[in-house]
């Protein structure tokens, strides 16, 4: 692998060091692709969570739209494309939804509004994951992706709390209540969701996030069973 590709993969691994404990539950053939895919989604999350002058992020989203459409013809320019572009997935559908992330930066009115702003993008992500990991896309899988995005977003942006909620804690608890311990979707997504949900649970408890390897293994094994 090139150093450029490694840098993108390592950046995601640094944010999610827990993955090293649990990736054994992902099929070996899917491990590298899973990290590349989640690294790509992290890029989009970072653009969603941008604040201030977002002109550079908006330009990057436009570039990524062109890049994803080129993957339909197996012509990639980005290093992540070396692992992802060979997958016959609805890349153009995902590209079409990237502009939705720009208005989704605004503070939503309530929970339904927060979900609706990301619904089309989450459905496209679920469709790509279904193709990538040989599973079925479903509304439940898209809902799980939306919940995870909102939970991680509030950790980055306090302004992401809907106006109908008094504070971050109230919004965190509402998201947790709608977030099952085992979500719909392919195995890599189910395991990733367990890690993200654990971080949010620590926020709600008010303590530092210090998961035990044994606890991570147990929860991830349970999620991987489907």
3D architecture notes:
- The chain is mainly α.
- 64% of the residues lie in helices and 0% in strands.
- The chain has helices at 3-15, 19-22, 31-48, 55-71, 81-84, 91-97, 111-132, 139-156, 168-177, 187-205, 213-225.
- Helix 4 (55-71) packs antiparallel against helix 6 (91-97), helix 7 packs across helix 8 and helix 10 (187-205) packs across helix 11.
- The protein is globular and about 45 Å long.
- The two termini are 32 Å apart.
- The mean pLDDT is 94.
Observed structural traits:
226 residues, mainly alpha, globular
The arrangement of helices and strands along the chain is HHHHHHHHHHH
Overall 3D shape: globular
Average pLDDT level: 94
Strand content: under 5%
Low-confidence stretches: none
CA-CA gap between termini: 32 Å
Q: Given the structure, what is the number of helices?
A: 11
Structural category: mainly alpha
Radius of gyration: 17 Å
Summarize the structure.
The protein has eleven helices and no strands. The protein has helices spanning 3-15, 19-22, 31-48, 55-71, 81-84, 91-97, 111-132, 139-156, 168-177, 187-205, 213-225.
Q: How is this fold's topology laid out?
A:
Blueprint: H1 3-15, H2 19-22, H3 31-48, H4 55-71, H5 81-84, H6 91-97, H7 111-132, H8 139-156, H9 168-177, H10 187-205, H11 213-225
Helix pairs in contact: 1-3, 4-6, 6-7, 7-8, 8-9, 8-10, 9-10, 10-11
């Amino acid at each position: 692998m090139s150093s450029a590709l490694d840098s993108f993969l390592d950046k995601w691994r640094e944010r999610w060091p827990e993955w090293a404990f649990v990736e054994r539950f992902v099929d070996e053939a899917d491990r590298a692709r899973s990290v590349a895919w989640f690294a790509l989604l992290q890029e989009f999350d970072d653009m969603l969570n941008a604040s201030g002058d977002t002109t550079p992020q908006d330009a990057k989203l436009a570039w990524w739209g062109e890049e994803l459409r080129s993957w339909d013809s197996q012509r990639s320019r980005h290093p992540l494309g070396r692992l992802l572009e060979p997958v016959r997935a609805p890349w153009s559908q995902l590209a079409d939804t990237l502009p939705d992330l720009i208005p989704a930066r605004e503070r939503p009115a309530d929970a339904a509004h927060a979900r609706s702003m990301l619904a089309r993008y989450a459905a496209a992500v679920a469709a790509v994951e279904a193709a990538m990991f040989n599973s079925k896309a479903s509304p439940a899988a898209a809902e799980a992706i939306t919940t995870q995005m909102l939970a991680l977003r509030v950790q980055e942006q306090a302004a992401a709390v809907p106006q109908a909620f008094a504070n971050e804690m109230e919004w965190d608890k509402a998201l947790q209540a709608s977030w099952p311990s085992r979500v719909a979707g392919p195995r890599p997504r189910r395991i990733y969701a367990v890690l993200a949900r654990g971080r949010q649970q620590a926020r709600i408890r008010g303590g530092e996030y210090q998961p035990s390897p044994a606890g991570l293994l147990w929860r991830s094994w349970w999620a991987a069973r489907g």
